[in-house]
Amino acid sequence: MSITSELLGQYHAGGFVLIPIILTGLVMWWLILSKLCTLVQFRKHERSLEELQTNPPPEWHWQHSLRQDFVKLRCRDDEVNHALMSALGNTCCESMAKGVSTIALLAAAAPLLGLLGTVTGMISTFTIIAEFGTGNARGLAEGISQALITTQGGLLVAIPGYIAVNMLQRRIGSLQQRIDLFLTYLDEQPRGVAHDVQSSSELSFRSSIHG
User: Fold this and answer.
1) Could you tell me the residue ranges of all domains in the chain?
2) What pLDDT digit, counting tens, does each position of 100-138 carry?
3) Rounded to an integer, what distance in angstroms lies between the CA atom of residue 18 and that of residue 151?
């Protein structure tokens, strides 16, 4: 028996509950891969503090938007600047973390859907026993198969989902530290220097367009 035939057989044996489990897994993995690609791109184009003036980040990068907002809003009051840094950093991290809670929710929902399939399969099994006794082996096997396959499917979606959520949260936590360091660096720059860094970024971007 080929792998395809075996998978199709398990799909049919799992019953209708297997459909939302599969859809949950597909949506969850689409969100995981999308978020992971975004974080990898941000990391790839991130500039060290020494490179910022000579090799500024692209316009879509968080370093560019944070620098632009901080230079525009900073003032001469240190307390206000620290509050501004905290607000900008939190907003940026919340934006990066968007979607991770949805992934965690889908990972948590998958085993519950599997449990629903288990209960449905056991109800089907007991119904067959009530009607035909234990003589209908095929009917009993179908009910038990549905119970076990949906449980298995829910766990197969949930376990990698929880691992992915943990990995994404660690990456976002590391990003939070780099954002705080970046904002501290901007705050330590004199107002004129920070503005020059911003201007050099814009000039470099315009030259890349026209050149």
Assistant:
1) 1-45+62-191
2) 999 999 999 999 999 988 888 887 777 777 777 766 667
3) 9
Task: Tell which phi-psi region holds residue 15, choosing left (phi > 0), alpha (psi between -120 and 50) or beta.
Answer: left
From CA 154, how far away is CA 65, in angstroms rounded? Answer: 40
Two structure tokens written together for 109: 């929902």
How many of the other CB atoms lie within 10 Å of CB of 166? 11
pLDDT of 205:
39
Residue 38's H or E segment, with its range, is: helix 18-44
Please check whether residue 73 is in contact with residue 84, taking contact to mean a CB–CB distance below 8 angstroms: yes
Cβ proximity of 153 and 22 under 8 Å: yes
- The DSSP symbol for 56 reads P
Q: Which residue has the tokens 């376990």?
A: 159
Q: In 12-169, at which residue ranges do the beta strands (DSSP E only) sit?
A: none
Phi-psi label, residue 45: left if phi above 0, alpha if psi -120 to 50, beta otherwise: alpha
Tokens of 5: 């035939």
